[in-house]
Amino acid sequence: MAISLDIDQLRTFVAIAELGSFRSAGEAVHKTQSAVSMQMKKLEERLNLKLFTKTGRSLLLSEDGRRVLEYARRMVALNDETVDALSISHMTGRIRLGLPDDYAERLLPLVIATFSRINPSINIEVTCESSITIGERIKQDQLDIGIVTDGDCTMIPGQIVRREPLHWVTAADNGLGHVRPVRLAVGPVTSSWRREAVKALDAANIPHIVTYTSASAAALSGAVMAGFAVAVLPESAIRKGLRPIGEQEGLPPLPPCSITMVRSAGAREPIHDALCSHIMTAVGNLSPGTDPVSRA
Question: What sequence ranges are listed for the domain HTH lysR-type (predicted)?
Fold first, then answer.
């Protein structure tokens, strides 16, 4: 017999995981601490799982709890997206969306197409520019919503929607990763991926030279596929004909990269909420954390 999960319980569970305590979660979902505790007891009983484990005076999400959190986030987001989509289907409006060309190419075509089918009366105007330019235009209210590389857009706060490993990348059929100095195909000096690559190579005392600079991910990939240089790209951007390299080639590890969603001060209407929720559901891949959770 199939088990039906309660969205309200899942929403409370997500709030506990994100805010760190039963008390804070209760304030966020407008419930008493005892009501929050009762909801978690019922959720554990329904799933037949222990979602929390006690460590000293604190509670951590259990291994099962971390697994449930990943699904709970997606279910709550999809629920909210559905409600938003149905509630605004009769509305008209315009949303100005900005994002770098690589995100436009690999992450959002189907996302935007799906949203437009659900909400045909909402017109989305897409502008492809660098993350730093998008951030500046968001601040000036020239764009409503932006999808940016987290480290490239620091002038405006946002919500991280996706994290990915960052890789050294070369053509699948060459051994350029062993060549010294390392020949780099990277973004402009404002690119956080470029900064992380140079920082890692400098820390490992590996000689390197920038031989190709472009703000276009497609151009960087082309330079790599031609055997001209080594690039630094997120996992989802590694297309056919490219391969990740690293330790075997003597290259240092790279930190993960994050994709962030930013909004202008004026983009607070239901249509903006609906698109943000849609993007989070379709693109987001945030893994559950292991932060302590307190009942206090």
Answer: 5-62
Q: How far apart are CA 221 and CA 60, in angstroms?
A: 42
Place of tokens 């978690």: 40
Alpha carbon separation from 208 to 128, 198, 220, 256 (Å, rounded): 30, 8, 17, 21
- pLDDT per residue, tens digit, the chain (296 aa), is 678 899 999 999 999 988 888 888 888 888 998 999 999 999 999 999 999 987 766 778 899 999 999 999 999 988 987 877 676 556 679 999 999 887 887 777 778 888 888 888 899 999 999 999 999 999 999 999 999 998 888 778 888 888 889 999 999 988 788 999 999 999 999 899 999 999 999 999 999 999 999 988 888 989 999 999 999 998 888 888 999 999 999 999 999 999 999 999 999 998 999 899 888 888 876 443 333 333 33
Give the whole-angstrom CA distance, residue 105 versus residue 59.
Answer: 42
Q: In terms of CATH, what superfamily is 92-160+258-283?
A: Periplasmic binding protein-like II (3.40.190.10)
- Domain at 166-255: CATH architecture: 3-Layer(aba) Sandwich (3.40)
Fold match, 7-87 / 92-160+258-283: no
Q: Which two tokens stand for residue 39?
A: 């909801």
